């Protein structure tokens, strides 16, 4: 107001006129000016705001002169005042949600900064843990976060959530908010009840974060808590119980299965249209069904064959819906995904298909008496048998395992189509969804016992009757039969492995004169490292542990060793065996059907006679059953090719000649018998060739030197009269000295054997070299 | 000469009188003070504002205006005025009524009314209703009487820190 206007206004008569009018005008102005304006929302005064106040006054004097005056100014600052609200879907009241077993919940909490500054929300407490009667059924939890209406980040861990809130981007202005969602899922085996989630939050104002930080201090609000109470309503839950028994003899066992099914849930189990996709023709043309599927057990990767005719029984009193039909179906598809029919030929799956004439119609009502794996009052009972296996490992525990699975329609609050309820279907799957067939296939292929959410039986495993057996024999042929001395009967206990040994640099001399009855000289030193490899095979159907005892020939020692993998003994004794006249390996584990190589390492004492067979042996005995054992023999030959020379005076002079004397001009014929002393394995033996000690072609070289003492015929005869004759036409190569021909030669060598044969007890076991000399 | 002297005397008298009249005027000095109000079961406690102490949201501040006429003449139409400080909201019914009638403004002092009204839109049409006191922007008092020399007058109102 200008000074002149003030003076005018100060005139009493003018003032008396103007004041009421002004008031009226002001009222009218306010009325019009604020028409349609809403009341301003109360906003918190920002932290750090300086509240300043200065009063003023006007007055006049008696002359009507106007005056104005001002007061002092008072200034005060507004402190940090953090506060917040935590709202649910019911505002400030606790939130609510509903779901069924095997569903997921999203509890949305809106945290609003209702204070007067910028701050970060903090979460002293956030679920999990959850409360409520079904709190234990929560299977997965994650968090989602949206800051001030921004994009929502999902799948966050609690650590990530807290980090995001504390990050610079999580600085929330007054009036701003964050939306935190607790996402969790529950399992399928959940009874009706509640799950309560909780968020306890506060907001922290840092002075440094405020626009006017001077004088402010860091302040944290009190905690504010809110909750959600989520209600879980009932759903179907098909419980399966599977039992198994064994009948029949050990050699032809029969495995009998019983699968019992009942609805132990809180709502009817319904038929599903997507089940139809697994088969063709009747009964797969009906509008919907549930399925109980059982993968016929395999053994050694081969599906066992059905024995007899499977059967299904239903019981209305236990929940089977009147009018529904249960049919046994089979699939030849190893995955069970397709190929279902009512033909049992080449069946790899067996199942029960239950229809009730309409999609999503109840097929098994709840009877409330069952639990997963325990069905005392079955609505459906499937029985079938398979021919049990007899092969290696069939006697082991868990040799044949099997599990049954089922897929039904869940009630899902009468949703149509129903949700799939079956093992491994851990999130809600609508029967009408494109993924339903895949989910069904995954469910019936479940291999986890009593898998969530429902519909899986326990895993039943069974062992066939144990049949223990062991074979102990030559390497690569533990089941060989033979006669180690050629006398005893050919049998699996008399099989053997030959091995030769000789003292190094020792000349074996046969002192015997009768061919086939050698009399060797004695070794002058001990001989060690006489290695014999054998195999022990678990030929029973159950894993076993053996004790192997090696017995050395008299005077010898023996120790059992493991095989080194390169066809030689390792340095590690077998089963703790030590050296001695006997060596015992214990705790030798051999799985059913598996063969173990091992070695018996013998040492011969000094003085051992050459050209002789020494018999050692090993016996493998089942630790579980002492009547289960097998023996094999180790035939140790202190050289095995014996030479026996004899002479005949073919022509002589007519005069008096001493006995065994020969006159000049007389003719002598020498016969050199060569033969192997290795025992013939016996008629009908199955000894492997490697177990029989033989020579190789040309490896036996007989040298006859008429000048080498004690021979002297080179001196007293005219040398060979002609070629040396080998009784075996097997490719012997002769060399004469002096040559090139045999005539007058005083020395020859004969390489016995060749392409046509070698010296072997099972082939050419003997022969002679014959040569003639004429006495000078 | 006498006439001249008389004239001079008259002039001097007029001058003296004029001077006397000119010195006889009101001189009102205003003093503003604030105090937080803490109401408990046992009564009311006023804590003068201290620049070292920060206000908190929700706190109540009582502002007191004291006008002291130090002049020799009464101050007529004495009208103390104050602005509702930013960041605070007037609390209905707290303006004192002793010594003056309070009026309020919704528009920074352009218009005044003892009871400001607003018109809101309702389903039935525009409806006039009293304005929310928290929306008042200014307050003043129309004094009941002049403020006599050496006299003082006290006015107060309360606000709440938003």
Task: Give an overview of the whole structure.
The complex is a heterodimer of chains A (776) and B (162). By secondary structure, chain A is mainly β. Chain A contains five helices and 47 strands. In chain A, strands 4, 6, 9, 11, 12 and 13 form a six-stranded mixed sheet that branches. In chain A, a hairpin with a 5-residue loop joins strand 34 (557-563) and strand 35 (569-573). The longest helix of chain A has 22 residues, at 12-33. Chain A starts with a helix and ends with a strand. Residues 1-41 of chain A have low confidence and may be disordered. Helices cover 14% and strands 46% of the residues of chain B. Chain B has one helix at 2-23; strands at 28-40, 43-48, 60-69, 76-83, 88-90, 100-105, 117-122, 125-130, 138-143, 152-161. Chain B has a five-stranded antiparallel sheet with strand order 2-1-3-10-5, with no helix packed on it. A three-stranded antiparallel sheet of chain B has the order 4-9-6, with no helix packed on it. Chain B has a two-stranded antiparallel ribbon with strand order 7-8. In chain B, strand 7 (117-122) and strand 8 form a beta hairpin. In chain B, 32% of the residues are buried. At the A-B interface, helix 2, strand 1 and strand 2 of A face strand 1, strand 3, strand 4 and strand 7 of B. Strand 1 (50-60) of chain A pairs antiparallel with strand 4 of chain B, so a sheet runs across the interface.
Give the structure's gist in a few sentences.
The complex is a heterodimer of chains A (776) and B (162). By secondary structure, chain A is mainly beta.
């Amino acid at each position: 107001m200008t000074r002149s206007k003030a003076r005018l206004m100060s005139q009493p008569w003018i003032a008396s006129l103007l004041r009421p009018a002004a008031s009226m005008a002001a009222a009218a102005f306010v009325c019009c000016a604020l028409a349609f304006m809403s009341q301003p929302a109360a906003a918190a005064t920002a932290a750090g705001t300086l509240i300043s106040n200065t009063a003023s006054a006007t007055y006049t004097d008696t002359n009507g002169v106007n005056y104005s005056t001002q007061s002092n100014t008072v200034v005060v600052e507004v402190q940090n005042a953090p506060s917040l609200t935590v709202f649910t879907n019911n505002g400030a009241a606790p939130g609510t949600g509903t779901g069924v077993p095997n569903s997921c919940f999203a509890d949305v909490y809106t945290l609003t900064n209702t204070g007067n500054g910028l701050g970060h929300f903090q979460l002293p407490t956030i679920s999990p843990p959850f409360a409520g009667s079904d709190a234990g059924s929560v299977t997965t939890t994650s968090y989602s976060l949206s800051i001030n209406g921004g994009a929502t980040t999902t799948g966050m861990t609690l650590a990530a959530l807290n980090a995001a809130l504390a990050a610079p981007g999580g600085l929330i202005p007054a009036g701003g908010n964050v939306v935190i969602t607790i996402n969790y899922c529950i399992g399928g085996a959940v009874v009706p009840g509640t799950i309560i989630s909780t968020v306890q939050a506060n907001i922290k104002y840092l002075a440094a974060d405020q626009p006017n930080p001077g004088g402010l201090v860091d302040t944290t609000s009190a905690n504010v808590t809110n909750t959600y109470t989520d209600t879980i309503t009932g759903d179907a839950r098909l419980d399966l119980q599977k039992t198994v028994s064994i009948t029949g003899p050990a050699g032809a066992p029969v495995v009998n299965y019983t699968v019992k099914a009942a609805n132990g849930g809180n709502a009817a189990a319904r038929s599903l249209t997507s089940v139809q996709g697994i088969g063709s023709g009747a009964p797969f043309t009906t509008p919907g069904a549930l399925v109980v599927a059982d993968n016929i057990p395999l053994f050694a990767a081969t599906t066992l064959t059905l024995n007899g005719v499977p059967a299904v029984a239903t019981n209305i009193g236990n929940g089977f819906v009147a009018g529904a039909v249960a049919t046994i179906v089979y699939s030849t598809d190893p995955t069970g995904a397709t190929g279902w029919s009512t033909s049992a030929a080449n069946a790899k799956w067996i199942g029960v298909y239950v229809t009730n004439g309409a999609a999503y119609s109840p097929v098994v009502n709840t009877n409330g008496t069952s639990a997963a794996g325990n069905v005392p009052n079955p609505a459906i009972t499937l029985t079938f048998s398979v021919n049990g296996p007899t092969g290696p490992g069939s006697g082991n525990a868990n040799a044949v395992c099997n599990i049954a699975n089922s897929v039904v329609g869940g009630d899902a609050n009468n949703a149509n189509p129903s949700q799939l309820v079956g093992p491994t279907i851990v999130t809600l799957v609508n029967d009408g969804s494109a993924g339903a067939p895949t989910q069904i296939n995954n469910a019936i292929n479940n291999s986890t016992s009593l898998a969530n959410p429902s519909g899986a039986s326990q895993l039943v495993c069974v062992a066939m009757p144990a049949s223990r057996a062991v074979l102990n024999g030559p390497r690569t042929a533990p089941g060989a039969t033979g006669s180690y001395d050629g006398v005893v009967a050919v049998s699996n206990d008399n099989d053997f492995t030959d091995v030769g040994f000789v003292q190094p640099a020792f000349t074996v001399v046969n002192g015997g004169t009768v061919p086939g009855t050698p009399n060797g000289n004695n070794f002058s030193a001990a001989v060690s490292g006489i290695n014999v490899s054998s195999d022990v095979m678990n030929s029973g159907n159950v894993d076993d542990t053996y004790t192997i005892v090696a017995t050395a020939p008299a005077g010898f020692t023996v120790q059992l060793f493991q095989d080194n993998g390169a066809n030689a003994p390792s340095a590690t004794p077998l089963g703790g065996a030590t050296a001695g006249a006997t060596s015992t390996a214990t705790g030798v584990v051999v799985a059913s059907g598996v063969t173990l190589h091992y070695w018996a390492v013998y040492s011969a004492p000094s003085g051992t006679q050459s050209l002789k067979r020494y018999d050692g042996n090993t016996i493998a005995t089942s630790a579980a059953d002492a009547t289960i054992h097998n023996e094999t023999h180790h035939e140790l030959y202190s050289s095995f090719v014996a030479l026996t020379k004899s002479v005949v005076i073919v022509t002589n002079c007519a005069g008096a000649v001493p006995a065994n004397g020969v006159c000049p001009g007389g003719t002598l014929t020498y016969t050199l018998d060569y033969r192997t002393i290795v025992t013939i394995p016996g008629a009908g033996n199955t000894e492997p060739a490697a177990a029989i000690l033989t020579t190789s072609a040309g490896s036996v070289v007989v040298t006859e030197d008429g000048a080498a003492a004690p021979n002297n015929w080179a001196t007293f005869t005219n040398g060979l009269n002609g070629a040396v004759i080998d009784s075996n036409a097997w490719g012997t190569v002769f060399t004469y000295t002096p040559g090139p021909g045999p005539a007058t030669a005083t020395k020859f060598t004969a390489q016995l054997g060749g392409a046509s044969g070698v010296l072997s007890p099972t082939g050419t076991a003997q022969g002679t070299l014959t040569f003639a000399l004429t006495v000078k | 000469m006498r006439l001249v002297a008389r004239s001079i005397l008259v002039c001097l008298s007029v001058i003296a009188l004029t001077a006397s009249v000119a010195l006889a005027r009101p001189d009102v000095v205003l003093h503003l003070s604030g105090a937080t109000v803490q109401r408990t079961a046992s009564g009311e406690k006023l804590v003068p504002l201290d620049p070292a102490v920060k206000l908190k949201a929700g706190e109540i501040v009582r502002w007191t205006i004291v006008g002291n006429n130090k002049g020799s003449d009464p101050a007529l139409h004495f009208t103390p005025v104050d602005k509702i400080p930013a960041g605070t909201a007037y609390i209905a019914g707290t303006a004192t009524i002793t010594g003056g009638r309070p009026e309020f403004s919704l528009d920074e002092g352009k218009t005044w009314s003892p009871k400001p009204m607003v018109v809101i839109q309702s389903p039935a049409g525009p409806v006039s209703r009293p304005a929310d006191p928290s929306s008042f922007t200014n307050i003043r008092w129309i004094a009941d009487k002049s403020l006599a020399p050496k006299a003082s007058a006290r006015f107060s109102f309360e606000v709440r820190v938003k």
